[in-house]
Amino acid sequence: MTAKEPVLTVDSLSVHYATDRAVPAVEEVSLQIRRGEILGLAGESGCGKSTLALGINHLIRPPGYVSGGRVTFHDDSGEDIDVLGLSGRVLRTYRWNKVSTVFQGAMNSLNPVIPVFAQISDVLKTHRPGMSRAQRRDRAQELFELVGVPPSRLRSYAHELSGGMRQRVMIAMALALTPQLIIMDEPTTALDVVVQRGIVREVSRLQRELDFAVLFITHDLPLLLEISDRIAIMRDGKIVEMAGVEDIYFATRHPYTRQLLRSFPSLTGARGDFIRHGGELDEETAV
Ligand SMILES: Nc1ncnc2c1ncn2[C@@H]1O[C@H](COP(=O)(O)OP(=O)(O)OP(=O)(O)O)[C@@H](O)[C@H]1O
C-alpha cells in the first residue's frame, strides 16, 4: 500500500437543509483524502465545511439530508466501505475504529463528572472488549504521553484541566483505536494562539509518527499552509480549488483563493517560509 492511495473518496456529495429557505450547504463535492496526508479544508464561515465533515461521518440530522452522492472508505484490509449505507452498531464501530473526529468545541463535550481516564477507558472497553483493566490503563497512559499530557492527569476531571489539555485529551481519545483517518473540524479555534500552535504542531508530529490521514478544517488559511500536504478551498458549498500547498500559495488559479490569501496580512511577510516542505515544519517561522 503506498502513501498515494486514497483512504476516503467523496463522490458528488450534496447535502441540503430543508429550512424555510432551502439551503444547499454542500453541492456535488468530490474529493479524495490520501493515506497518511494532511488535507486542509479552508473557506469562510458558512461555506459548508462542517456540513461536509458531518456528511463524511454519516452524521447529517434533520433538517439536513443527503440529496446525492457517495462516501467510500478504503479500508487497509482492502475492503471498500459504503459509508452512507452503514447503520447501527456497524456505523458506530466505523466511527471510532476507522475514522474518528474532533469537532469544534469538542473539549467541552468531556463528561464533567467522570475522570478523563474513565472516559478513554470506556471507549476501549466498548470497542476492545478483550482488553483487561491494566491494559486499558497502560493504553490511556501511552495516549496521554503521545499527546503531551502528563499521565498523572489521568485521574483529573475535565474542569481541572486547561482548555489546551482538554483538547489534547480529545485528540488522545480520537487516537485511541488507531483510526486510519482523523477529521478535525476547527479543533483549536477556542484556544489562544500559542496553545493553538502547540496543539497543531503536536497533530502534525503525531501524523508523521503514526501515519494516519487528517482532514483538517479551519477558516485559518495560514495555519493550513503550515501543516497541510494539500489544500481544498470551499465556497458556497462547492470545492473551487484543490492543490498542493505550494501551488495554492505561489500559483493559485482561482481568484477566490487569491482573495482569501490576501485577507491574511501576515502572509505578505517572509514569502512562503512557513509552508510545509517535505513534511517538516519550519520551527522559526511557524509561530
Ligand atoms: N442545522 C442546520 N439547519 C439549517 N441550516 C444549517 C444547519 N447547519 C448549517 N446550516 C447552513 O448550512 C450552511 C453551511 O453551514 P456549515 O456550518 O456547514 O458551514 P461552515 O463552513 O462549517 O461554517 P463555520 O466555519 O461558521 O462553522 C450555512 O448556510 C448554514 O447556515
UniProtKB/TrEMBL annotation:
SMART domains: AAA. Residues 10-261 form the ABC transporter domain. InterPro entries: AAA+_ATPase (IPR003593), ABC_Ni/Peptide_Import (IPR050388), ABC_transporter-like_ATP-bd (IPR003439), ABC_transporter-like_CS (IPR017871), Oligopep_ABC_C (IPR013563), P-loop_NTPase (IPR027417). Keywords: ATP-binding, Cell inner membrane, Cell membrane, Membrane, Nucleotide-binding, Translocase, Transport. Its main location: membrane. It is found in: Cell membrane. It is a peripheral membrane protein. One of its GO terms (molecular function) is ATP binding. Gene3D superfamilies: P-loop containing nucleotide triphosphate hydrolases. It comes from the Bacteria. Belongs to the ABC transporter superfamily. This is ABC transporter ATP-binding protein. It comes from Streptomyces millisiae.
